[in-house]
## 1
Amino acid sequence: MLTRIVYHFREGHNKSLPSTVTHHTALEIVWTIIPAIILILIAIPSFALLYAMDELEDPRLTIKAIGHQ
């Protein structure tokens, strides 16, 4: 990738024309927000499952552990 960039944007390639590559702010915002929304959509069911696993109504076995130093 670096070799391609150096090749296409070298000084001798386009002496008369300046580079027309610009930042596209709207595109950058979109490709930042869409993955964030996807992560939130994945996290919501994960949190529900995590809280459901934490709730034990009536355990069949209780272990009492005592540690001495």
Note: The first helix runs from residue 2 to 8.
## 2
Amino acid sequence: MIVRPEKPEDIPAIRIVNERAFGRTAEADLVDTLRRNGKAAISLVADDDGRVVGHIFFSAVTIQSRETELMGIGLAPLAVIPERQKQRIGSMLMGHGLRRCREEDHPFVVVLGHPNYYPRFGFVPASNFGIKSEYDVADEVFMVMELREGALTGCAGVAKYQPEFNEV
């Protein structure tokens, strides 16, 4: 198993991974739309001997307040095909993805996800920094991780995703 950047020939398999992992097309549609619009910041696949079994995707996010605007990165989605879940593939994708985010010098990453899964990677409720999602979601499911220590100091505000998130 290797984790690598997506290639054009992976796109149909990535769509299938997202559809199967979530049991619907919304996440696959979002990834396709963001990619088509040039908004894919980081897109990695878990490749098991030539078969794409997992996918992680990041796109730009902005935290806006009255005083500041801070650009960072948002994780959405993270997907593994159902028969390969609970085999640490998602953890491998997270590790590689977060490393790439740091290498590309993103100051923070946000995620809207399961409150029992993402904290193991270092995510904390975004409300700890005074950050809210632009979406009406429970506090415990909207999380953030500083990729640079102190990056979110004094940066309370609203996290805004790419407009495509509202289109699919």
Note: Residues 2 and 47 are 5 Å apart (CA to CA).
## 3
Amino acid sequence: MIEQVAQANEATLRLTYARVYAGTDGVTHFQDSPIRMRPGVYVPGIPLVDSAPPRPATMLTFSRLEAGYTSDWHPAPRRQFVVLLTGAVEVTVSDGETRPFGPGSVFLVEDTAGAGHRTRALESDECLFVTVAC
């Protein structure tokens, strides 16, 4: 019990997501952002669950990219988390860095101004993802 309480007071890193943002010069970049979680009661009567503080969300959208999909440069339509369900994408930011994201990946696009980014489906299968506007 004492150990459980001590653990509940310590925030631990459980997830890191990539953030796509535009600098003041309009060039887009990646930044790794940690999410710290604490053990706590999620549902009374079950073991403690590691959770981060809730974040406000305004819209959830399910989307699909066809195999071979490639976009041109574009800013994000809104600040939103992207959660890959199936398939894989590659995102390129205007500073030249490219990162791949596969099933289970989470990244935040908030480059709603500036040069934007490009997105390309990496595999021969479709890519299913969820966006959560925040």
Note: Residues 2-133 form a domain with the Jelly Rolls fold (CATH 2.60.120.10).
